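Reopening this ticket.

The earlier resolution said the output was attached, but the attachment link was broken on my side. Pasting everything inline this time so it's all in one place.
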Amino acid sequence: MIKQAVSQGGKQLIPAKQDRPTALYGGYSGKTSAYLCLVKIKNKSEYIYRIFGVNTSWSSELKQIQDPAERLVRLEELLTPQLTINKKKKGEPVPVTKDFKIILPRILINQKFYSRGQDISIASEFYLHNEQELVLDKSDIKILNGAIKVNNSNKQVINLFNHILEQVNQYFPVYDIYKSREVLNSSKEIFESLTWNDQWRNRKLINVGQKTILNRILIGLHANAARIKISELGFKNDFGLLTQTSGITFTPDTQIIYQSPTGLFERRVALRDL
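Inline output:
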């Protein structure tokens, strides 16, 4: 889970271990997370739960600590700088650490949660993925795969767009990130104005058609990490990109989803009960 192999050179490197200076042993040129952890933080009169990444360099050190309690204490020490802010006291900056507790010290990447009204998975401390599936009826699928021929004024295409829109509004609340649902709803007139097929001139794409737009929407709504540009509908960010730049946070009502390897058995636990 490291972007680059252990190396030496002119770049500022991250030590592979705390007791191995990079000048002598080299180090990692990129910081990634080996896994994640869940931290409970007191925020005024309530608590929030936040995902933090456990750096690969930390993981190497934590593996060497056999006692679970000591390992937890060390992880708290490593996380403390991220939970410490400077507050001025008599004109001087004073470091103040938030009241926090590690609830789950090890969460695998792509762990599922139920949050914001739908299932999601966590790819990092900043990126999350949609896990809600879009369901289309047979006639919609036939339009998409070409079994039903359509023309530029076919109402079935508009109905298909509306069917997708209805499901997004009801079952995909996580797409409020970057106002994706709002943009999709406001793009209906733009979509209706397009032709069914792409328009080309001298082997150059002039206008993207409804068929291409629909396929791009489906890619962005897949229950995976897919994202795609749909600037024709007014999206400024990739559709399907779900990030929280200040860190992924949850409420106490959020549920962590435990599943068997086959996915047949499932247990959901509210974070407040951990």
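Reporter confirms the inline version is readable. The chain has two domains: 32-127+244-274, 133-233. The chain has a mean pLDDT of 89.
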